[in-house]
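Chapter summary example.
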Amino acid sequence: MQREREGLERAKVTKEEISQQDHRFLAVYVESKNSCMVMLSEKEDKLGTMAIAVPKPKDTLGTVTSSVLLGDKNVISARMFAEYVAAKKGKIAVVSVYLEQATEIQAQEFFMHLIDKVLRSEASKERTPA
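The structure predicted for these 130 residues follows.
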């Protein structure tokens, strides 16, 4: 409580899931003052291929910069989603993608839906006073 009064907030955590095509897709979203992390997975919460993206400075031209930090499966999705979140939030974004049975192409639509859902959920929490 003391830290919140001093303006030092704790990270916010949001969890969402959807079931599609006999698969359960999950998202865990953690947002701090300067960064966001999204764990996207199938069936249960697990860490997978991880990418980081840094938004471009507001007063410069160019796109978001990203790199894969860990793993070699689902790298396209991990980088794409990290860049998307970084651009949307204007913060450093780390995204992890873990798939067991679904293909990367099958999962992309569902993961994008989950990302949009957690971002909307956090935005509505910020507008609602606690």
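To summarize the output: Residues 81 and 112 are 8 Å apart (CA to CA).
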